[in-house]
Structures are given as C-alpha cells and as structure tokens.
Amino acid sequence: MSLQIHITAGSKNGQRLAAHSGSIVFGRDPANAIVVDLPHISRKHGELVAQPDGSWSLVNHSPNGTILGKKNVTTKPHPITGTVSVFIDRSEVMRLTAAPVNPGDASSRPTSEATDKPSGGPMKWVLVAVCVLSAGIMLAKVMLPDSGGKKSPAVVARDFEPMTPEQLAKMIEAPPTEPYQPDLVAYEAAISMAKGVYNPASRPTMNREAWLDAYKAYREAMRHNSRELSTPDDKTDCRAVTAEVVKLVTSDYSEACLAYNRFDYRDANRLFGKISTYAGGPNPLFGAEFRNHILKLQGLADPKRKK
Question: Tens of pLDDT along 164-208?
Fold first, then answer.
C-alpha cells in the first residue's frame, strides 16, 4: 500500500506527499523527510514505517506524545488504516491515508504531489467543509474561556514544553553539581557501595531501586574525587549504570507527559511524583534545573488545581 501524507501545520502546511516503502522520520529537524516546525514538536518526533506485508504503522519517539486518531501511540508500531489524523499537543499536524499502490510506482521516499487542491467530487468538498467547521470550533475553545472562567483543555495542554530524550540524557549524564569535597575515605566507601549493588553478573536481577542506588553511589564517589572516577573499570561500570538510569527516567517522564497530554492529571501527578522522589529530597540525584522542572510539572498536574 502507499501512504498519502497531507501536512496540516507549520511552515509546510498544505504540502502533500506520497510514500510507498521504507521509513519516514517526522519532526522539527530540517533534515527529516517530513518537517513540522512547531515548538512543541521534537526534532525526531516520530516515524512512519512500512511493514513487510505492505501496510503502514506510526511509531512515537517523543515524550511530548503522539495521537493517531484517538489512540495514544507509544514506541510500538501502531497500524495506520484508512484516513486518519495525527495530533501532537491537541493540534492536528498531519492527515494520513493508506491506499493501494499505483502500478509501476516504487518510490521509497516521500514525493510531493503536483497540486495541493482537493479533488474527488462533491463528497470531498463536504469533508473539507466539515474539517473547516471543526477547526473553527476548536479555535473558539482555545481563545474563549468556558462558562466557569476556567482554562479550556486546549490551553492547559500548553502549560509547559516537555524536555526531549536528548535533554534528559544530558542532565543525567552530567557530572555532579554539588560542591567538591575531597575525601579519599568517603570516595572508597562510595565505590565499595556501588560495587556491592552493581556488577555485570548482577545486571539481570537488578530492579529500579538497585540501579538508582548504584547511580547515587557513583555520583557520591565523583563528588569526593575531582568529579571523576579513578580506574577504567569503575568508569565503565558507571557508564553502564548511568545508561540504565537514563532509560528508567526517560520512560517514567514519557509516561507522565502522555498522561498530562490526555488530561489524566491524577496519573500524571502520580508519575511526576515518582520521579521527584529520586530527583529531589535531601540527597538529590540530579541537578537543580531538572528538580525544579519536575516539581513544576507535578504542581501543574495536581488534580486539585484542575477542578
């Protein structure tokens, strides 16, 4: 099957593309095959993937979330059937149509169509009119307060711009920001604690708490030794632990943002609170910028504020 792509947001609004095989990355990055240059869209936000059976699927790569029709898309491929819209932060950014491939057409990269004008008879014009009317109603909800004077959901969804996976990884991998306190005894004690929790053989049995404890111990060791580790083995183990913590935090953060974007504030507040238990506290694992960001999001997602 071919995939017809109609971009409906950003500077490429109105552009139409057609793809027949391969994978197509979309997002803010100008190098993408599909560029949607809006601030709440990640650089590599998601991907349209052709499956071996000829069908197409959408995969989300961003903590900002992606909705296909009415379904939240995760990192698992979600099938594209018929004509369906792609929403990011409650805004339609693309309209996709899966259709049979025309004979002799085997292009693997999206190609622009000759015209952006709608065609196909009276029914197509009826659909266009319905879309325009729906867009007007959505715009009115964004611009006008409801009868109780509260924010409409479309405005609430823009209360913050989530961090990208790259930003999260950079913060977690950065050296400790706490004051340097040279202490060889404390350094050796922290290294011993880290080794007691993590070694390559124990990796399959480690749970979330164990990974975070090992990460915390390595961070404590660096704080007592010029913000670095002494031996190559310790550095290798620390990188392995840090990479796992990046995965844990990114997964939790992505789930929390998706819950917030679908207005499930109770679940979002719970998930942001889960992150704040190890991002803050008397012995925080991450820098002040990330801690403040999480505390802000936890406050925004407080169900009591949304009533």
Answer: 888 888 878 877 766 778 888 999 999 999 999 998 888 888 988
Reading phi first (left if > 0) and then psi (alpha if -120 to 50, else beta), residue 13 is in beta
Other residues' Cβ atoms within 10 Å of the Cβ of residue 190: 22
- CA distances to 199, 200, 214 from 205, in Å: 11, 10, 13
Separation between Cα atoms, residue 30 and residue 12, nearest integer Å = 11
**What b/e readout covers 116-133, taking b as 16+ CB neighbours within 10 angstroms?**
eeeeeeeeeeeeeeeeee
Architecture of domain 2-105: Sandwich (2.60)
Residues 6+ apart with CB under 8 A from 221: 187, 190, 191, 194, 229, 234
- Supply 244's token pair: 């796992």
Check: CB of residue 96 under 8 Å from CB of residue 50.
no
For the entire predicted model, the pTM comes to 0.48
- What is the location of CATH 2.60.200.20 in the chain? 2-105
Burial class (CB in 10 A: 0-12, 13-18, 19+), 138: middle
Instruction: List Cα–Cα distances, 67 to 53, 84, 169, 248, in angstroms.
Output: 23, 10, 24, 23
Q: Is 134 exposed, middle or buried (0-12, 13-18, 19+ CB in 10 A)?
A: exposed
Backbone angles phi, psi at 197, to 5 degrees: -95, -40
H or E element that contains 16:
strand 16-19
Query: What distance lies between CA 132 and its chain's CA centroid?
Result: 29
Closest by CA position to 256, among listed 240, 235, 272: 272
Two tokens, residue 225 = 């030794």
Chain centroid offset of residue 66 CA: 8
Residues 51 and 23: beta-carbon distance below 8 Å = no
pLDDT tens-digit series, residues 52-74: 888 999 999 888 788 888 888 87
Q: Distance between CA atoms of 73 and 88, rounded to whole angstroms? A: 11
